[in-house]
Amino acid sequence: MLKAALGVELTHVPYKGMQPAISDVAGGHIPMTFSPIPIALPLIQAGKLRPIGLSMAQRVEVLPGVRPLAELGVTDFDAASWFMLVAPGKTPPDVISRVASELRLMAQDRAMQDEFTRLGLVPVESPPPKELKDFVQKEIVRWGKIVRQAGLAGSE
Question: Does the chain have fewer CB atoms within 10 Å around its N or its C terminus?
């Protein structure tokens, strides 16, 4: 996505996890990587990594001087990471509803929001499970297009 947006040649270097990749950036073995903020933040704070830009469209409180790539001229660049709690498909709907409700209450807790912010995460209000399912479907379509444009359609 970044390669296409900038029109530059980039080489993908596969790693078995984020930690080895970010260690190699800090050690000068590779020039850059995308990283979740909570993983990179300690190395940024220690001066071992320099953030270039955020992959999501919004700014992050813990990195006030770091602008989103979209603000830096990389048009429409928005590649935010997201996480979701899932359960087996046969879980009763009332259990799913109760867990979702409790999670929404927890996410409204000011101490929880402060901890998310401290880690470099963006607290969000979780939509109901049906809306999450719709969101995932849209993400599959969106990222499927990006995969095909990159010539990686055989890896879908």
Answer: C
